[in-house]
Amino acid sequence: MEIDMDGTKFLLLFGRNMKRLRNSQNLSLRQMATRCNIDYSDIGKIEKGNRNIQMSTVLELSKGLGVHPKELFDFEFEWKPGDFE
């Protein structure tokens, strides 16, 4: 998937990957929320690509999933040098 200039597709891909990781552990949104101290509705918004999060939130999500933060970014996307200039 090609990345757009405002990052919407990137957020969507991040969210899909996070949801995949959550589902692989059979965690509900509420269970995930309890593990990482983030409201379940916010987790749902992140998974849908509707929320642009801070790095500290990435760390909390990775703790909740029991994975290294880099695993949340383990998805394919296309971009060209200069796309973000």
TrEMBL record:
UniProt-recorded Gene Ontology molecular function terms: DNA binding; DNA-binding transcription factor activity
Domain called HTH cro/C1-type: residue spans: 18-72
Keywords per UniProt: DNA-binding
Keyword DNA-binding set for record: yes
Record-linked SMART domains: HTH_XRE
Entries under Pfam families matching the protein: HTH_3 (PF01381)
The keyword Aminoacyl-tRNA synthetase is annotated on this UniProt entry: no
GO cellular-component term (any): cytosol
InterPro entries the record matches: Cro/C1-type_HTH, Lambda_DNA-bd_dom_sf, TransReg_Diox_bact_type
Entry-linked PANTHER family: HTH-TYPE TRANSCRIPTIONAL REGULATOR (PTHR46797), METHYLPHOSPHONATE SYNTHASE (PTHR46797:SF1)
The protein's name in its UniProt record: Helix-turn-helix domain-containing protein
Organism the protein comes from: Maribacter luteus
